[in-house]
Amino acid sequence: MNTATDDRIKSKRLASPSDWTFDLIELYFNEIRRTAQSFGLDTYPVQLELISAEQMLDAYASVGMPVNYRHWSFGKQFIASEKNYRRGHMGLAYEIVINSDPCIAYLMEENTMPMQALVMAHACFGHNSFFKGNYLFRMWTDASSIIDYLVYAKSYISECEERHGIDAVEELLDACHALMHYGVDRYRRPQKISMVEEEMRRKDREAYLQQQVNDMWRTLPKTAGKQSKKEHRRFPEEPQENLLYFIEKNAPLLEPWQREIVRIVRKIAQYFYPQRQTQVMNEGWATFWHYTLLNDMYDQGLLSDGFLIEILSSHTNVVFQPPVTHPGYSGINPYALGFNMFTDLRRICEKPTDEDRQWFPEIAGTDWRKTLDYAMRHFKDESFIGQYLSPNMMREFRLFSIVDDSTQKELEVAAIHDDSGYRRVREALSKQYDLGTREPNIQVWNVNLRGDRSLTLRHSRHNDRPLDNGAEEVVKHVARLWGFRVRLESVDSHDRVLQHWEVTPVPQQHH
Amino acid sequence: MLHQVIDRRLSGKNKSIGNRERFLRRYRDQIRDAVRKAVGDRSIRDIEDGTDITLPKRDVSEPVFSHGPGGTREMVHPGNQEYVRGDRIPRPQGGGAGGSGSGASPDGTGEDDFVFRITREEFMNYFFDDLALPRLIRTQLLADAPEWKTRRAGFVSEGNPTSLHVVRSMRVALGRRIAMGGDARVELRRLEEHLEQISKLDHTPAAEIAALQEEIQLLRERLKRVPFLDPFDLRYRNRVREPLPTSKAAMFCLMDVSGSMDEARKDLAKRFFILLYLFLTRHYQQTDVIFIRHHTQAAEVTEDEFFHATESGGTVVSSALTLMHEIIRERYLGSEWNIYGAQASDGDNWQQDSSKCRELLDNKLLPLVRYFAYVQVADEDQNLWEEYTRVRDANPHFAMQKIVTPAQIFPVFRDLFKKSVTPAS
């Protein structure tokens, strides 16, 4: 490199002190944005917020959202993370980013300038473009209205607390939280949520709903002639998987305000549903892009060596995957898996081997940006791994699959990273990220309309896996919401009931 | 692409305080028990410190449906070193190798406690949570009543800027402007109309028009000089302080420091009084505390001397009671005072003196006090205990307890000062 280019590069180089300033953040942000645009990343506008460590702890406690309703479980979360932080057991996440429009990213005051650059590239361009592009987020969440909705939820719930007492609201929220993972529609697109609309339509909805419920439970005697025909009408006609939705619409004794709170919890659960299904992809995508963007800026001569080294050392920690024998092993690190998969995907596009051509004929040798963009937009963890986990990756991670069958005395190695095992390992790993198999499949089975109004939930066993005994506590919560006896049965593939729990609610006193 | 950087560091730190309070509120009973247990084994100095609270994890958990152990599951792990397909591995202890995504089963194994710290302030609040001075009466309005309540009382023209009432002030200003400009405005309107009329006529002399115009100009200027807002207009919210019925209380602490009180007993007595003192200063700011210690003679001492000085001799318990009676007569006579007594002794007393103590209490002191608590820091029943038992049987507002080990101090203290359900007589 001759001296002329050297000088030119030096003059372009951005200042790199370790302390950040607002000017520097602006400067770096603009450079990162320019680089990101050159790669064609499509993002929401960004709002950067500088916060202190205490505020980061606050954000932790309310599941990362800037506003949320009050609940003791958030307090518990806060107390726990505060304690761990103070004793140095836990470092704080460097960033929190919120899927909203504009995309809100928190930068922590304690971070050095290289860390702030890393966080900006990671959150403001990586996660942000994922939020904007991935089909699950596009389909299920409405980034422009989530903050509004949370403001509405917070004020509505605090209003309920004033009117009906903190205890009544807390009891209800506890019950809803226990069912939160069973409060999502998996296949239907929910209506957009926005504060204005909610406020306008809430009252109508309350009145209407109450009327519907009352109608369903009509106790007027029927005329003698028609009686026998409808004897075996099932309710619900088909099993329902969205327990909270079913309760909101059909629980006989809930007051309108209680239905509204069930709805709020359900809506928020729905908002987080895509995040739970795209952890590997989302983190992998963001990590891939901070790595790619900052390296590209270094190649342009914008970053100094020391600056990049600090970034790379954090990056290496983030994507470290301890092997299964490591004492610190706690499952597969989503950052590591995701980052390596996207990197590998780029390699397959740019430098495909014969093996890649055989496994991925349609993408080997194509434009990597288009391929990665397509992968980011149209997959979730389960399908992404099922589609793109390459033999090369499996070898690199030395993945192997273990079957744990409780009827056998020993575990069995079902497949390893060899020719006969690639497909099996890939399929097993893909299933591991399928929420449908990870969480017990529990649905509303039947309501005894003509008798004691009891509700039956049914757990269909997958691979004979039973329910944990903690289920009884959850059934108690369901009974609290339903108001009548609730039965949960766990059945095997032949519909034989293998476990069951039954709870009759204590009659509530109305104040 | 629009973006902005916002500095939030100074805005709203403790957003989670509300949630933390909810948590503490939910586990109030458990925390209170933990606090009381914690205090049991503390020395005098760090009674007031905060503490770690431990709650069983089971209590604070939030239940969700999850898979239990059993059935078949397949897990993929990284870092295979030696295994090939078909290998069999003995099942590791403690739930599945690694056990990542599949919701590590909360089946009792690996259950630990939820530990967190509460502050000193919270600690003391929990500690004295359901305690109160018994039979305390809010006396009538007092001339030098120390407690006030402020309430709003209309508006005044003087006050500090924070209580400025903008709407009122503007209304007054509007009124004043109308009043001050009224005549001038009427005159101005008349002159303008006149000017309009005469300027239509051809034969009006120019001088007359000029004179009129000058007059109008003068009037306009005069109107302009009426200020929009004058200090005179400002109105402030008025707040008045009203005296409240208050409780004035005096607590007499009587401690035996005679030779028979060995170090252990003195320590028990002092710890009891420290607790009492903390309790009073925390909950009853307006309380007078009088410290009396005695051997054969009684003396009123300062707080510092009471807790720290060492002195000893024989024992005449009645000397302390007599002194207490004298002090009441001198300083605390009158219906506005709620008077309390707390006495600690090992029960060892000069033989003839115990019956005198009973008479003193029965006839002189108990009619004057709301409540009198006696704590004996020794186990054996001596004559003072017997005499006091008779006092107790005759007087409902006399209580007595024994403390033999430090662990008993707190239960006894709570028992003596627990909030009674029956209202004070």
Number of helices of chain B: 12
Name the structural class of chain A. alpha/beta
Q: How many beta strands in the DSSP annotation of chain A?
A: 9
Oligomer: heterodimer
Strand residue content of chain A: 5-15%
* Helix content, binned percent of chain B: 25-40%
Structural class of chain B: alpha/beta
Shape designation of chain A: globular
The Cα radius of gyration of chain B reads: 39 Å
Specify the CATH homologous superfamily of the largest domain in chain B. von Willebrand factor, type A domain
Look at the structure and give the CATH class of the largest domain in chain B. Alpha Beta
Alpha-carbon distance between the termini of chain B?
Answer: 74 Å
How many strands, which pairing sense, and closed or not: the largest β-sheet of chain A? 4 strands, mixed
CATH architecture of the largest domain in chain B: 3-Layer(aba) Sandwich
Give the N-terminus to C-terminus distance of chain A in angstroms.
83 Å
Looking across the biggest beta sheet of chain A, what order are the strands in?
6-7-8-9
How many DSSP E strands of chain B?
13
Largest interface: A-B, 99 and 69 residues
Morphology of chain B: flat
Describe this structure in words.
The complex is a heterodimer of chains A (511) and B (425). Chain A is an alpha/beta fold and 511 residues long. Among the domains of chain A are: 11-134 and 278-310, no CATH class; 320-437, no CATH class; 440-503, no CATH class. Chain A has 21 helices and nine strands. Chain A has a four-stranded mixed β-sheet. A three-stranded mixed β-sheet of chain A has the order 1-3-2. In chain A, a hairpin with a 4-residue loop joins strand 4 and strand 5 (410-416). In chain A, helix 8 (166-178) packs across helix 21 (471-482), helix 12 packs antiparallel against helix 13 and helix 17 (381-388) runs antiparallel to helix 19 (422-432). The N and C termini of chain A lie far apart (83 Å). The model of chain A is unreliable at 1-5 and 224-230 (pLDDT under 50). Chain B is of the alpha/beta class. Chain B folds into three domains: 18-60 and 113-129, no CATH class; 161-238; 248-417, von Willebrand factor, type A domain (Rossmann fold). Chain B has helices at 17-26, 28-40, 57-60, 120-127, 166-200, 206-224, 263-283, 303-308, 317-331, 353-365, 383-394, 406-417, and strands at residues 3-7, 51-56, 72-77, 88-90, 113-118, 148-156, 236-243, 248-256, 287-294, 298-301, 337-345, 371-376, 398-402. In chain B, the strands form three sheets. Chain B has a six-stranded mixed β-sheet with strand order 10-9-8-11-12-13, with helices on both faces. In chain B, strands 2-5 form a two-stranded antiparallel sheet. Chain B has a two-stranded antiparallel sheet with strand order 6-7. The longest helix of chain B is centred in the middle third of the chain and has 35 residues, at 166-200. Chain B is flat and about 125 Å long. Chain B starts with a strand and ends in an 8-residue tail after the last helix. Strand 1 of chain A pairs parallel with strand 1 of chain B.
